[in-house]
Fold:
Amino acid sequence: MKRKIALVCAAAMALSLAACGSTGSSEPASESTPASESVATEETPAEEAPAEEAAGDFDATQAITVVTREDGSGTRGAFIELTGVEDDNGDNTTAAAATQNSTNAVMTTVANDETAIGYISLGSLNNEVKAVTVAGVAPSAETVTDGTYTLARPFNIVTNGEPTDELAIDFINYCMSAEGQAIATEEGYVGAEGAAAFEGTLPAGSITVGGSSSVSPLMEKLIEGYQALNAEASIELLQTDSTIGVSGALDGTYTIGMASRELKDEEVASGATATVLAMDGIAVIVNPANTAVDDLSIDQIRSIYVGEVTTWDAL
Amino acid sequence: MKTSSVKAKEKVMQWVFTLCACVSILAVALICLFLFANGLPTLGKIGPLNFLLGTNWKPGNDLYGILPMILGSIYVTAGAIVVGVPVGLLTAVYMSRFASPRINRVLLPAVQLLAGIPSVVYGFFGMVVLVPAIQQVLKTDFVRKVLHINNGKGMSLFTASLLLGIMILPTIITVSKTSLDAVPESYYEGSLALGATHERSVFFTLLPAAKSGVMSAVILGIGRAIAETMAVVMVAGNQTWMPQGLFQGLRTMTSNIVIEMGYAAGLHREALIATGVVLFVFILIINLCFSLVKGAEKNA
Structure:
């Protein structure tokens, strides 16, 4: 009996050791990766550099925590295209980038990690994080409009060919009218200027709008605005994502789909028609405690995201 | 006349019961069918070896290798077991044989409450409390200069293991406690009669007698840990590289599916379903182990 007990104990210990080993043994591997090696070599000279004093308490020798969105996200698609992270070889985002699957998760991560950098929709920006200027231009509705802020993408509303539903036509007219575009601008996005005032037929009926979670906050305001004019209209808003927004518009699940990116060729081939609702800037955000950077060039952003630069002082 | 109507009633009810029983079997069968019918052709399209042993996951570049995610799932689960099993087992022993009824009146509901907390709440707790705390600890000179851990990240294998270890505690505690409670009192009394102390009796007589129950607890814990999604997504960092160490981020199979499913289209989507197939096979193996342990218990 005693022997059996001893055996069980030994097996349990061996198991736990093996488990420790499997997690522990992977650790030395990290030192042999090129990314951490380059950090180790850069660390020593930088620590003596006096530049740190100017940067306050922030230790710029720390490795950058790169935060990105998941593969296939509309925001990521636009970001990698605009910054040149994506080239002919495809998406070159560094494998070391932490991936979060929503705008809020990216913001929380950046707000909690002083070494982090991330990117979000301009309309979602708040005080928990610091938006850097890109090539000297601060992100704002004005700079996106005049084209000086280059990280911008369209918000599209998608229909299956030309809309046929009376209410859908009228609602789209409202969105594109001076009133609708003013709401977009008010919410921090960039609406078109000089649109005609709304002259709707205000039919009764019910439609479903669904798609991108980035477009949803704006769509909500537009629906509120429209329903204030047309109490007979029942408009349901469903929040999913760009791809489902387009496919839903095509298969009839949604009367109107929302997409925070340009349509793909295969989607256009299936009959999807996109109308640009507004432009949205993509803000590059860092932790407010990060005093090492206030401005990044497009190329600096690219080199951070492809993993060429791994510490803040190496920029 | 009356008996035949009763019989007919019984027949009908029997059918109703059978139908109810079939719902769960049908659900499992349909899920299996869906997974394998969608996943296996994809496996063929990408190439089973490229898919299972590929080290690059870049859907944008048509690279679908899930080895990093498979290893990620295994490491995170192993980490959770290292954290959760010792704590859970000792808690079960304490609750079963040491704690006074008064303490148990507090402990038992606390453990049950722990089991009832939604995983997204665990994840949020991990994200706003654990991650920054570990980030701070990793920045201290002791960790950097004495332990030589540079570049550690708050979102890491360590954090995910810690959080999952806490999450599997209720499973391990309740299952092992039940099996400890089920050990016949005569074992304990016999041990005492031979002159062993209370502690000795508990650890060297009761615990070995309950070992198959404890093994079941560990296996159920593994199942819970490997299938956990929300909490892991929020604290693991989700990098698609091969796991780089205890204090670096990684991505598990479940995270991979939940992160990318919403936006994926075409082959990318199919590859995610195939990831689900691999995960499903893992769960099948774990359940098989569980049945084997249970079977061994019956034969013993």
